[in-house]
Design brief:
9 strands; alpha/beta; HIBADH-related; NAD(P)-bd_dom_sf
């Protein structure tokens, strides 16, 4: 299996390590070189350029945001130069608008395209335990499926329209942000009546809210452990803004997303905020009600 990965942030690098551990030869490229060198030591092959990475049969990409996707793949001409028949699997959380644009462009260029955004933090990615949302033409999805199954606890097929996968991913990330916001407010209420955060979140996270999001983020909130980030707060703000853009495109109003955007903007004004996990949003919620 000839696989490459473009974009080696925390999630991209973790996925590469998972594939290497399973015996897959992975060619890697990143705009900054240090992580490439680290992964080469661990068994990956370096690509001199994104064009070289697109010589693989299956090209995975995990770029941080819409502008990075445009810079690396569109404005650079990389996609336009790619050989016909290659399958590009976009694992990133991007806007619904860009998802549609990418699907149309790949079809025009004769390239396979699978939108496959993921749920899970870096340790889950390295363990191959992600939930992967997969949408695209059936032949492209079939080609990508062996790799996606190595990355995933479960692959969730979502039909042929790639926009569907990205819309579901945005909805899921919005629910994560909303859960953190509600935990922060609940903690403030409990503490006002003498119930410490660890006690409150342990009880609720073990019973009524016994789900990974409440357990993982609840544990971080209880300990006020927000660094180093697994899911950076600034990326959370990016995603909330994508949610609001997607909602506006369909004439929808999302008041909770408006609140989350304002809270994350407030959080990110603080010193060192770029090194905070999304879980730190709970501190803004706590302060709001105290």
């Amino acid at each position: 299996m000839n696989v490459s990965m473009i974009g080696l942030g925390a999630m991209g690098a973790a996925m590469v390590r998972n594939l290497l551990a399973k015996g897959v030869t992975v060619t890697v490229w990143n705009r900054s070189r240090a992580i490439v060198d680290d992964l080469v030591v661990e068994g990956a092959k370096p690509a001199a350029s994104a064009d070289e990475a697109f010589e693989a049969d299956i090209v995975l990409s995990m770029l941080a945001h819409d502008q990075a996707v445009k810079d690396v793949l569109l404005d650079s001409g990389v996609l336009a130069r790619a050989r016909k028949g290659v399958v590009h699997v976009n694992l990133a959380t991007i806007s619904a608008a860009l998802a549609g644009e990418l699907a149309a462009l790949h079809a025009e260029l004769g390239l396979g395209y699978v939108a496959a955004p993921v749920f899970g933090r870096p340790p889950v990615a390295q363990a191959g335990g992600l939930n992967v949302l997969a949408a695209g033409a059936p032949d492209a999805v079939a080609t990508a499926m062996p790799v996606l199954e190595m990355l995933a606890a479960k692959v969730w097929p979502l039909g042929e329209d790639p926009v569907r996968a990205n819309a579901l991913k945005l909805a899921g990330n919005f629910m994560i942000v909303s859960a953190i916001e509600s935990m922060g407010e609940a903690v403030a209420l409990g503490e006002a009546y003498g119930v410490p955060a660890p006690e409150l979140l342990d009880m609720l996270g073990s019973t009524l809210f016994a789900a990974p999001i409440y357990k993982i983020y609840g544990g971080m909130i209880a300990e006020r452990r927000y660094s180093p980030p697994g899911f950076a707060a600034e990326l959370g703000l990016k995603d909330v803004r994508l949610v609001l853009d997607a909602a506006e495109a369909k004439g929808l109003s999302m008041p909770q997303a408006d609140l989350a955007e304002a809270s994350l903007e407030m959080l990110l004004q603080g010193e060192g905020a770029k090194d905070l996990d999304l879980a730190a949003l709970a501190e803004i919620a706590r302060a709001r009600v105290e």
